[in-house]
Amino acid sequence: MAKYLLLKHYRSAPAPVNNVPMDQWTPEEISAHVQYMNDFAARLEKTGEFVDGQALAPEGSWVRYDGEGRPPVTDGPFAETKDLIAGWMVIDVDSHERAVELAGELSAAPGKDGKPIHEWLEVRPFLAAKPSTTECTFK
Amino acid sequence: MNEALIRSLTPGVLGVLVRRGADFAAAEDAVQEALIEAVRVWPADPSPSSSSRGGPMRDPKGWLVTVAWRKFLDATRSDAARRLREDRVDQEPAPGPAPAVDDTLQLYFLCAHPSLTPSSAVALTLRAVGGLTTRQIAEAYLVPEATMAQRISRAKRTVSDVRFDQPGDVATVLRVLYLVFNEGYSGDVDLSSEAIRLTRQLAAQIDHPEVAGLLALMLLHHARRATRTAPDGSLVPLAEQDRGRWDTASIAEGVVILQAALARDRLGEFQAQAAIAALHADAPTVEETDWVQILEWYDELVRLTDSPVVRLNRAVAVGEADGPRAGLAALAELDDASPTSSGKGHPMPRRTAVAAYLHERDGDLATAARLYAEAAHQAPNLAERDYLTRQAARLNTRRRG
């Protein structure tokens, strides 16, 4: 019963095995890829392990406070070397092993020629909001 | 129609149906329909005098059993497999007055069945024994209602073939209840309070010292709850808690329950943990904590469970009873015993934090500060991460100043 974030990256992740940019897939291949992920989410909803999933636009900005009375600093629309996150899914599973197993399945989404793309997904546990009470001597 | 009354009656009604031969999922559906019927026909005022002679309020549980059983039979008759089930039902002895106690107890065992994953067992227990709605459970676990509904219906399917006449494993039930307690979210449903309520109910039905031990442990932890976090949400360690704000009624109740359990001379890990919690709760100030006795209880716990977490807590107690050097030596023994507690693999939660604390007590502030910062990276939740980061910052400031 721990929540994990499965992160898909646009870049900065190691290259997938089936590394063909999406714009060179056929529309059918793209549909199959999206369908795979939708089916995956629907299946996790049935097992009681799905929490949330969203896709993110590739455009993003870094923003920083720049002092009293001044507008925040942004780096503009030019994302160059920074990491970009394509989307995420939050799952609620019994163990880290189960989270890794599911990320493995999601990484097998079909790509060019309908073959699995073997993309790298990042698996990050959520920090629980409240400490648990399992120990006597500290809390 | 009174929600508390309904919640207290539901598990018993469900238990009667399942024992009479209804499978779990069908029984649950039938009970839900009976509850809907109850909402429709029961008087708003639940006192017996307000209802007419022989009305549902004379025997609400009997009324619910009768209606739910009729709903179950209706559903069964229209089912393709009706012949098989009706034969089975037919062979059951005629339903008479049932001892409700055993039925609810069986329900506990069913919901904590070993074939269920921990999260499914927890969800099913809250639903069937606790009588919570799917929405309440979903909100308590911060997942969508549809997700929780599926988790519960999968769990029901998993146990649908389990026979209802076998005594289950008390230890599994207790583990599930302790899982619920440790979630402790508050909101519409406070899972810690719910776990205490259910464990209390279980303790009333089953004479087992470990059930009493777990109930005592929960009450003793719960008594300190208000002081465990500051108003800003940050963690307050035991030594710094305002003991005047501990719930003394809850502590006293926990101690009485624990003493009665210990007198039975069938020690188990929950009783030993409760004994440690009781010694902490009993100390008027942190300086007056009886660490020697706490250490003795940790030795018992090591004998009973020998888990790395227990050995880690024991090292803290050694540090308090015999000094930080002895504590660090106990920690080193732990590393030899468990290859994953340091270095390779998953670091054991809080091992680094304990090492940092013992080094600070020993006067080695540089090592302590470095270890606190490292421990902050391994912290399992935000409150602990913030706490440990502050400890590192405190020591670094002191070393510079």
TrEMBL record, chain A:
Coiled coil: none annotated. It comes from the Bacteria. Residues 15-106 form the YCII-related domain. InterPro entries: Dimeric_a/b-barrel (IPR011008), YCII (IPR005545). PANTHER family: BLL7171 PROTEIN (PTHR35174:SF3), BLL7171 PROTEIN-RELATED (PTHR35174). Belongs to the YciI family. This is YCII-related domain-containing protein.
